[in-house]
Amino acid sequence: MIRVLLVDDQPLIRSGFRALLDLEDDIEVVAEGSDGNEALALARQHVPDVALVDVRMPGADGIEATGLIASDPALAGVHVVILTNYGLDEYVFHALRAGAAGFLVKDIRPEDFVHAVRVAARGEALLAPAITRKLIDRYVTRPPRPEANLNELTNREREAVALVAHGLANDEVAARMAITTITAKTHINRAMTKLRARDRAQLVVIAYESGLVKPTPSN
């Protein structure tokens, strides 16, 4: 059973999402909240698999809530998914950097919304290659941030991370590196551990903020 926490300051939005999730036999909404402070308290109380958190709320917003959840060792298994009306904007970037596994636009189709919850529960990032491209384009003009210790990575781990940062899935990384998918996943998981990335979304952010990837901006 996938346990879900819903946090949004608009009751109508929460009830709509809950109605969709309640129709699924393998998903249970364990709690609802209306701001970032409630998000952290409810996450600690219920330890959900997925926390769906609105990015913009009065008081403590989704970015702050994401950072608090991501930094709590007891909530390491909670995958935060940001809910937004606006798509890929500055708020979403900050939330991803704070540890969110991805984001969903609120006008998403119901079937896609439910599928996304299942994907997030598996620990997979909700970042399609096109979104990864936008993330890279957004940060490519910024100077590298030497926060991550890339020296801890092996050459193969660096190569795998760079491919992930360009939007490749595990099987595509494996094909490029001429290794098995299992080995590719191992390289990626070890890199995540060494760089203290909660998931692939944060790994992508670290990759370009550290200067590991220096892509050519798209036209």
TrEMBL record:
InterPro entries: CheY-like_superfamily, NreC/VraR/RcsB-like_REC, Sig_transdc_resp-reg_C-effctor, Sig_transdc_resp-reg_receiver, Tscrpt_reg_LuxR_C, WalR-like. It comes from the Bacteria. The keyword Ribonucleoprotein does not apply. Transmembrane segments: none annotated. Residues 146-211 form the HTH luxR-type domain. Residues 3-121 form the Response regulatory domain. Keywords: DNA-binding, Phosphoprotein, Transcription, Transcription regulation. The keyword Transcription applies. One of its GO terms (molecular function) is DNA binding. The modification 4-aspartylphosphate is found at D54. GO terms for biological process: phosphorelay signal transduction system; regulation of DNA-templated transcription. Signal peptide: none annotated. This is LuxR family two component transcriptional regulator. It comes from Paractinoplanes brasiliensis.
